[in-house]
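Please describe our next protein:
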Amino acid sequence: MKKVIVGGLLAGLALLVVGFVFGSLTADMYRLSPSGVFKAMDFKLLVAYDIVVGMLLAYVYSIIKNSVPGTGMQKGLYFGAIIFLVGTLPALGITYITMAIRKKLLLMWALQGLVAYLLAGAALESVEEKL
């Protein structure tokens, strides 16, 4: 349980930090989007969301880690890549199909998801190795 809590917090922190970095890089793209597409973000809710997602990732990783290919940090990165492929890409695909979002912003979201989930997976494996 300790690995899930510590790993979840670290994974959630990775998601949060990467989100802030990419949010600052894409701020102008949000401002240039049609009005009414985005609403103001609630910082507390954003932090809570990333921590909850981090905890969920840690729990799932604790269950399937022995099935994830690779050794050491490769396992964490592989897990992060899987989450990106089955989570981020399908969501961005449907976003592209159904919403008037700039392609450049979608590409930045894809890059953000890749970086965030690779770092989250690395954090989870790091906790596995240390605890």
User: Anything to note?
Assistant: The chain has one domain: 2-130. Residues 45 and 51 are 10 Å apart (CA to CA). The helical segments are 2-25, 27-32, 43-64, 73-98, 103-130. The chain is about 80% helix and 0% strand.
